[in-house]
Amino acid sequence: MDEKHKLVPAVGREVIIFIVIFTTIFGLIGHKMGVINMINTIMRSSYSMIMDVCFYIMGVAVIAGALSGILGEFGVIALIDKLLSKLMGPLYDLPGAASLGVLTCYMSDNPAILSLAKDQNFVRYFKNYQLPALTNIGTSFGMGLIITSTMMGLKIDGSIKAALVGNLGAIIGSIVSVRIMMRFTKAYYGTDDSSLDFKELENRKLRVVREGSVGGRAINSLLEGGKNGVDMGLTIIPGVVVICSLVLLLTNGPGPEGYTGAANEGVAFLPWLGEKLSFILSPLFGFQNPSSIAVPITALGSAGAAMGLVPGLIESGSITANEIAVFTSICMCWSGYLSTHVAMMDSLGAKELTGKAIMSHTIGGICAGISANLLFKLFMLF
């Protein structure tokens, strides 16, 4: 979709408001960190994002794209759609092929679903209003295997059961997130237009394949799918670097030696905000200690960083298996969505709905945590 532009006065009230907000935010951050330290941290964090995160995501996207290409070429996606359409339709209002995106993200990370969205044999099962919701359902299961296995390995009684319950909570959160997002996408796109104009494929009895031998088709589908992964990896770099650097700046605190301008330092604003809201959030999530709120708050920007906080909470005796269930569901459902949602929606050509996607997923993650809390308490009765 082409960007929409409009003409506004060259200098107006908007300029003054922007300058006030911009200087206030970064003035306060610079006052706490030191202006030079703040600038160095932003630059080094951005570099770290590109080298450690973006290239990793690109690698995941290349593999996921290659896998999508060969699965689509030989009809596996068509089979999955046929087998799971009866399940995905009532739960998510999505075709059965979307389950492949769930599995791909669960085994890797959120942006892996973008490589699937470049595959015509995958996209053809979706209508226009369903495609933007891939961001929400993919993110809901991002890093699921890593998070679940990590939580299961924690030295706390009931961690395995808690991690499995957390997965159930994440599923509930994903349904809430996708269903809310669908209300916005239906209003924006309508419900009639197909994502691809393949009139001869509407009955889903035919699919597109490449010409040539079986071996040639396999190689070409792998390479073309991998190329789509490279394109996606490059596309998401601006969003990941800008948004994730800002989120980390607001999430992390100073280093062991204070503010030095090192990468990933910050002013710990989001954890502070979480502490202030703990009187609401702790009862909903069943937290026994207000410090536990740091985990879901950190998961807004990075699920990996959030999981890194859990062993310290266990050592201090601040959490039980109930918290492990909630941590699993929220870390899995949110999985750093503030760091990736903007780039993912832009890559899907639906950046106009980015705010709606973030709002929907915020609600979905909260519902995931609440559901895990209630389900774990229920299971402990038996």
Question: How would you sum up this structure in a few lines?
Answer:
This protein is mainly alpha-helical and 382 residues long. It has helices spanning 13-33, 35-73, 76-92, 98-107, 112-116, 120-123, 133-140, 144-152, 159-189, 214-235, 237-251, 269-276, 278-285, 294-299, 303-315, 321-334, 337-347, 354-379.
List keywords for this structure.
mainly alpha
Question: Care to describe what's here?
Answer:
The protein is mainly α and 382 residues long. The protein has one domain (13-379). Helix content is 70%, strand content 0%. It contains 18 helices and no strands. Helix 9 (159-189) runs parallel beside helix 16 (321-334). It is globular.
Number of strands: 0
Mean pLDDT: 83
Largest sheet: none
Task: Determine the number of helices (DSSP H or I, runs of at least 4 residues).
Answer: 18
- End-to-end C-alpha gap: 53 Å
Order of helices and strands: HHHHHHHHHHHHHHHHHH
Q: Tell me the overall shape.
A: globular
Tell me the number of structural domains: 1
* Amount of beta strand: under 5%
SS-derived structural category = mainly alpha
What is the helix content? Answer: 55-70%
Fold blueprint:
Blueprint: H1 13-33, H2 35-73, H3 76-92, H4 98-107, H5 112-116, H6 120-123, H7 133-140, H8 144-152, H9 159-189, H10 214-235, H11 237-251, H12 269-276, H13 278-285, H14 294-299, H15 303-315, H16 321-334, H17 337-347, H18 354-379
